[in-house]
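EI: anyone free to look at a 372-residue chain?
SC: sure, send it
EI:
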Amino acid sequence: MKKDKLYLPTLLTITLIVFGIGYFSMNYLVKVSANQFLEIQIESSQREAREFSNLISYQIANGLERDTIINNIQKSIEGTNTESGFICMFDWSGVEICHPDPQKIGNQIIPNESYVRPLDNSIDSEDFYQLLKNKKQLGGLREFNSNRSSEIIYLYPVKNSDWIIAAHANIDKIDKEINKLKVTFLLVYLLSGISVILLSVIVVRFLSNYYEKELELKNQLLMGEVLTLSKLNLNLTNYRKKISDKIDNEINKDDEIEDDLKTKKRILTYSKNKLISLKVEEIAFISTENSITSITCLDGKKYTHNSSLDELYNSLDHAVFFRANRQFILSVKGIDEILKYGNNQLKIMTKLNNSIIISKNKAAEFKKWLNS
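SC: here you go
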């Protein structure tokens, strides 16, 4: 249930990021693509206007009749106003001479018609895109007339005449092409965005399940270790009580029975120049360092002994003392806590806050000793 609650905010976050970034990137790509399309359209219209102008100039120079030239031009451009770009021809007074729509021939271009200025007879793709997008005056164009279906984007005069070739852009056709481009980008963007979101959620779900399984396995192992340590510490408590009861029973025995015991009840030690006899039940642990054997009592006092650890351990009750390693002999009374350490090792914390490490090989023997 908790995982399901986490998946929903994750899904919403990924969705917001993908669609947020996608929105701005899509607008940018649409703008770049539309500008490229318009740039090609402008270049094509300009080239067509120049070619027609040069062709007409050539015909005039060769003495062809003006009416014949006009009829030829009209026949070649008639009906082309349905394309994304077309040309027309008018004279310097603004009267249409040739137009793809024959009904417009002879019409006067009124001042509020949209066309480029003679002194600035070009428009770039950026201005054209903003014109189509915002429908307002930009660059060399006069105020956009929304009732018109085309815009004059280039003017080219015909030499040796009073005619002007005008390159038109079919606004309706170009708008449809750009809208088609937008729809294509939108579909691609939506499909890719949804795919990214679904794949992200699947990957997040897969990774979360994987790490949850890993975490559950680690938790199970940790619980097992905790139970093992709890059992060891419980065994320590029981074993300590068992040894205390044994020691109390032995203290109450008479001297004859005490003489028959094989293990020592007292150990003769040194403290500076003094000889001190210690009861074994007062010992916390015995250690060796630089060939010097030290006996540390439960009260924190430390004494030295002439024997080695092996000799002392052989003379002590193995039910009370354990040989932890080469440096230490532990008394069950000196153990305060048992902790896991490293790879299957144990760390014994003494009542004097010392730590003694029991190796992996000794750990099983120690557990058996506590459980005996």
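EI: Residues 2-191 form a domain with the Beta-Lactamase fold (CATH 3.30.450).
SC: 👍
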